[in-house]
Amino acid sequence: MHKTVFVWDDKYLDYSFPGDHPFKSLRESKAKKYMEERGFFHQMEVRRPDPPDENVLYSLHSRDYVEFVKLKSIEGEGLLDYGDTPAFKGVFESSLIRVMGSVTGIRLLSQGYEHAINIGGGLHHAQRSSASGFCVFNDVALAAKEGEKFFKRIAIVDVDGHHGDGTQALLYDDPNVLKVSLHMYHKGFFPGTGEVYEDGIGAGKGLTVNVPLPPGTGDDAYLYAFDEVVMPLLNRFGPEVIIIQEGGDSHFDDPLVELKLSTRGYLSIIRRIHNLAHERSSKILLLGGGGYNYDATARIWTVSVAELLAIPEEEVESLHDCCLTSTTSFTMDKVKEVVERVKKVHQI
Length: 348
Ligand SMILES: [Zn+2]
Ligand SMILES: [Zn+2]
Hints:
Layout: E1 4-7, H1 26-37, E2 45-47, H2 63-75, H3 91-109, E3 115-118, H4 139-147, E4 154-158, H5 165-170, E5 177-184, E6 208-213, H6 219-237, E7 241-245, H7 263-279, E8 283-287, H8 294-309, H9 329-346
Parallel strand pairs: 1-2, 1-3, 3-8, 4-5, 4-7, 5-6, 7-8
């Protein structure tokens, strides 16, 4: 059995935007329920995040911005960015606890755990001095930064339907972190970055890898890109830790993104990384992320955790979509073209 820890605090559920805002913590509570019903918590330890420590934020966020979030957290109204991320009462505390979950996850990996899970993490759009895309603080980049205290090489694999722009910007010149993002890329689609030529700067040149996928990309084309690009890059970089940002909005039923991954496609991705991690003695930190079909996102996270726990497939079969999805030849050709461009830029 692989020594696995699940980091959780009920306060995660407070990070949920009011009214008809699409980001709801219902995803996390549903996933936890699916895992409880199937006895997952007999097979892994559950730990609470380390006590809130706002100093963790200052490694990548500006003091002014942190102070601004604290103020808005008391006011409980207005916006934290230019439109998508509203403030609510307690937004500072509930954001910080989710950051602490990811940071605690990587600390526990340095203390002997092989896999750590924080489905409350994955808020990859937050920037140094601004919220963005429903993300207040960037726990993905902050966890990598914390991980640098213990590990030499860390990889981030971001499979959210949107580009991991905040993570990219915060770690753009970092030579110790490989940042890979696969995402939908289309005119007018949020956040508008994540083209192939964005590949890092300074000491981080070449360590940012973007795979911009066309709408309609299904499991077959996605896994093709993953095998052609992500697996060789991970093998070449040899990370001691792989952080997975597993946003559930690449799912075919997601209302905000037009990628077409199924739960089986997601599982195939996690399985590839899991196998590689054991072959190369890397550790895994699995984080959540976006996901606006709440049930699909909860199912994705549950089958992924089952993979890390080596739980027999039958036990989660009822949570799966029927089958792998396929891509039209028109879209497949576009994906192949993107893959060739990525290979060229990164000499794969
Ligand atoms: Zn394992
Ligand atoms: Zn997303």
